[in-house]
Amino acid sequence: MDAPEVLRTSARYPLPDSDPDLAELRSWAATLLHDVSEDIRLDVLLVCTELASNAYEHADGPRTVRLARVAEIIRIEVDDGTPATLPQLGVSRISDSRGRGLVLVAHLSRCWGTREAADGKTVWAEISA
After folding, report:
1. Cα gap 20→24, rounded to integer Å
2. Is residue 93 part of a domain?
3. Where are the extended beta strands (E) located within 1-129?
4. CATH number reported for the structural domain that contains residue 88 in this entry
5. How far is 35 from 41, CA to CA, in rounded Å?
6. Separation CA 22–CA 89 (nearest Å)
7. What would the pLDDT profile of 43-86 be if each residue is shown by its tens digit?
């Protein structure tokens, strides 16, 4: 599936250079989605956390999270400053402590992907509202 266009109208949350406050990120997203069912909201919060965590672990800054609702879709986008390192869907194994984040994102989302840019990349996911 081709990556959808960059979100033009969305809520933006710039992430700090170090030590992300993921609880604050989740609170911001939950406030924006106050009228969405709890199940959907929790899925979006988990996807936000996983994509933001991956941006800190595997990429350089600056980092930004964007959220938008388009019709019955909630779209999460996380930008980072590392264009060459695209995420790979890992194989989660019970004994491993790594490789589960994008597996969770793939299961919770209707689709997900990446979009490269000259100054970094965007990892995005869409959840049906």
Report:
1. 9
2. yes
3. 11-15, 63-70, 73-80, 111-117, 120-128
4. 3.30.565.10
5. 9
6. 22
7. 999 999 999 999 998 888 999 999 999 889 999 999 999 987 77
